Amino acid sequence: MYEIVKAQFEDGKTLTKNRHYSLVRRDKWPSYHWDLYPLTNEYFHELNPYFLFNLYSTELFRFSKTVTVRDGYLNFAVFVVKNFQKLATLGPHYLIHPDLVPLVPPNLRSHFSVWKLSQPRKLELREAKTVLLYGMPLVLHMGPLEELRKRLEVLRSLREGTAVQVFLPVRKQTFKAQEKETVFPFELVSLLKDLLPGRALEFINTETLVSQNDFHSTVLFDLTANRAVISDDYVHYHVASKGGSVHHFLKAAPADSYFDLSLSVNHRLHVCPLPAAESIFVELLHYSRTNPGSDLLFDEVFQNLLGGKLNQKPEAP
Amino acid sequence: MQKVACVFSFKKSSWISCQKIVFNLHKAWDLNPDFELLNYNYSQESGATELAQTAQEIFKQRPALLVILDHKPHPFLFLQTLFKLYGQNPKPRIVFHIFGDFTLYYQDWEKLAPLLLGCQVDFVVASPRQKILLDKMLAPGHSARVCPFPVDPREFHFDPKDRAPQRKAWGIKDSERAFVFTGRLTRQKRIHSLIRAFADVLGEQKIPTAHLFLYGNSDNIGDPFLGIWESQGEYFRKIDRIYQELPGKVRERIHFMGNVPNEELRAVYQAADVLVNLSVHNDEDFGMSVAEAQASGLPCILSDWGGLAGFELPQVAGATCYVGVKIGKRSKVISLADTRRCLRSHLDPGTKLDRRKISQLALQRHGIEAAHRKIEEILREKQAPFAKFSPLLDRIAYKSKLTSTLYVNQSREITNLYREIYSSYVRNS
């Protein structure tokens, strides 16, 4: 594993390097990539951060020796179910978020490692001058409101005087076969007002967020419940690389890190061995075999099955 | 009292230096007791209704002067809306404070020309080299005036009491030299060259005696005029790789500090011994961080490029050391030999410059009071009514409609058009 990762680092040939921009037919990417802007924005490091759903040909799989997988567990589950037979021969070593580990087929574990992010100079919520509350306001991303309310209780401890910015990019509903009208964003705002009485909430749009060059003294608090859609979110990268802190990043380097590199002055990526975890791959495979006509990504039963199984596991940092 | 309509974005610019510039320019205008400043918001978010209302309010006030203080958004739409109201009525005198991004908006300036026809217009730039550039864009009979972007002396001045605590926070000894860079860690600021040159010079010493503190975050601007685009994170990885390959004893003396609030830079400039800025940025019309550092009494090592050339202080030997720049075949080339020479010249801990004098001279030139006097001087003179921009600007505006790579040919070599414009930014053009 280490040799592959090190060789890839030294080679540095990746799909997101600007020099290789024109090699990728972005028109072949699924439309939901664009619906998830700016979460899916591209960025570079030598270990090839990429969405598996955008690797539309085997050539792209073989382009680099590693892929730092940015997909959430839904896409990743669909990917392994569809490709487990040829996964060993597709080429790269996959670096995945720890939450995705139970999806790895037991016989293919040697093709995987996990990535983690750390910020040694991370500020805690109580130290922040500004807290940026962020998330795509959809149930699939944030989970039910009542659970969200429990997770957000921590915000009551914010210091008086801490400014609160809110970035809720409203987009099409992710992985829904049919678009349905939702009042979730309004209920969410109402919840935030309820949890933070008397505080002014400054709502910002995507342009303001992505053009902001300095997040010094800002802590980003992600309202997302799980990594269903995206495990490596560009918004986290943007805030961290411009000096901000991301609440759920590690403060110290993980003890099991076998390779690491700085992504910015302010945050580091660590590659660690795949931890032990009970695999649920066989159950997913069984579901897909017994529902051959289903488009798994948009199949709400599959989504619930997966969410239920994964949420039984303790969440990795 | 003369009414002066000041137009700027009430929303802060994402360019940190520009936030300061607009604010300080406003202070300079405000020093004139004969002016009544009326402030109007024109920002990226201004919709058609807000714009029309603002224009209406200005028209009602009939100011004698209209001052465009900000760089974004371009004032074309604003002036188009306002001048519709004026019709054949005499228009106010217009003062444009020109920023470094002038060269990004040729098409907008070209569109503006018919609106400005016959108006009393002043194009005010921040440095002598930017004046050379802008004069090329103006028709004969019109020339740009220079008023440096001002520094507020209450914020940046010589104050030695801040030195010891900051050096203690850095963990460096009195006998060690501190070189500092503040700004964006970006390709056109040549951070990679600075790290290499600093490592070379440190490597020559048996016992290293210096530290380099790099303040700022990285970006992905690249050098698009020269066909170099970068992905997000690409430039940071480039400099981090250079850094990681250095010997440990050098690495421990190069410090990536990230961004800090502007007010924290005051102590940084007091604690440092030299500011280094090797920018060859296409927008480098001035150098606000250099102005603030110099106002704090800090000697500077600077690239001889664009606005940075305007910080020479011949009255204090060693206050500035310039690094040669030339426009090469494919890129802007800074002299590494000059960089090393300048770094070496500041390595001796015994070097003592009169920092109080540097600060005084810098503030005489770049303080808010100095900008106020410059503005008065500019307003005392009248230029011929505006007729048109130069054929060069029209040519660039036309070409930029046809291609996005104006300045490099298919072999990625720099074109004559680029040289025609940016020869203004190098010495002896």
Biggest β-sheet description of chain A = 6 strands, mixed
CA-based shape of chain B: globular
CATH architecture of the largest domain in chain B: 3-Layer(aba) Sandwich
Give the overall pLDDT of chain A as a whole number.
Answer: 92
Distance between termini of chain A? 22 Å
Overall outline of chain A: globular
Radius of gyration of chain A: 19 Å
Number of domains of chain A: 2
Would you identify the regions of chain B where 5 or more consecutive residues have pLDDT less than 50? none
Question: Which CATH top level class of the largest domain in chain B fits?
Answer: Alpha Beta
Task: Indicate the percent of residues in helices of chain B.
Answer: 25-40%
Describe the structure in your own words.
- The complex is a heterodimer of chains A (317) and B (429).
- Chain A has 317 residues and is α/β, with parallel strands linked by helices.
- Chain A contains 12 helices and 11 strands.
- Chain A has a 6-stranded mixed beta sheet with strand order 1-2-3-4-11-10. Chain A has a 5-stranded parallel beta sheet with strand order 7-6-5-8-9, with helices on one face.
- In chain A, strand 1, helix 3 and strand 2 (66-69) form a beta-alpha-beta unit.
- Mean pLDDT of chain A is 92; it is low at 313-317.
- Chain B has 429 residues and is an alpha/beta fold.
- Chain B contains 16 helices and 14 strands.
- Chain B has helices spanning 16-30, 48-61, 76-86, 106-116, 128-137, 163-170, 191-203, 234-244, 248-251, 262-271, 288-295, 336-345, 355-366, 368-380, 391-402, 416-422; strands at 2-8, 35-41, 65-68, 93-97, 121-125, 145-146, 177-182, 210-215, 254-258, 274-277, 300-303, 320-323, 325-327, 332-334.
- In chain B, helix 2 (48-61) packs across helix 3, helix 3 packs parallel to helix 4 and helix 7 (191-203) packs parallel to helix 8.
- The longest helix of chain B is centred in the N-terminal third of the chain and has 15 residues, at 16-30.
- The interface between A and B is medium-sized, with 29 and 25 residues.
